[in-house]
């Protein structure tokens, strides 16, 4: 199967080189699938694009999409997902952060569940065995943990980590049916994840959460802002109303 790992980046020079190297090592250990990497870069001002260009000389399975400006995580993923489906004919898409907060080794576990027949595999910080960084402030821990809990309770979801950035999604029957359109997605920022999660569940995706140890970011700065909290509240409210109206 063709598996595309999409990595959105904005100023991730401290992490992206090592991340690609480690992902490529993992790919070699899974010869049953054909992997490629799609970096969607939001016009980084640091060395991120240069480092990716350098890696392209060594590995032939890397492509970089350059956005003219930083438009938000959801916009970057929509761009990358559409490209993966139309240009690479990908069978599955893995969403993967570019700051090394996800462990490349976890790709093996995502693929294992995909091979077991799951359509949607979520790397979860909030099931038994999952963790968030010790170094996080109390505010960060509270917002992340209770944010996910709030989304689960409000929207009546079976999943515990509803904002996780590590996911594998099957394309056939699922991502090829989703509103992967900037005008239809409910948020162009981090909250797009809540919308796509609900759409996948609505489509009846066989879903599994696997525990992950979410690491501290490696260099660079967080791009998550207060706006993301309001975007999440907006998306949850719209989905709740739609659910109420049976849409
Ligand atoms: N292309 C693109 N990438 C983005 C954008 N916003 C964030 N990213 C990247 O998306 C990934 C996740 O963003 P982060 O800022 O790490 O979000 P987070 O993991 O929730 O926040 P931290 O825990 O503070 O790191 C990182 O690789 C970012 O560089 C964007 O607007 N465009
Ligand atoms: Mg991060």
UniProtKB/TrEMBL annotation:
GO terms for biological process: glycolipid biosynthetic process. Keywords: Glycosyltransferase, Transferase. Coiled coil: none annotated. GO terms for molecular function: dolichyl-phosphate beta-D-mannosyltransferase activity. GO terms for cellular component: membrane. Residues 4-172 form the Glycosyltransferase 2-like domain. Signal peptide: none annotated. Belongs to the glycosyltransferase 2 family. This is Glycosyltransferase 2-like domain-containing protein.
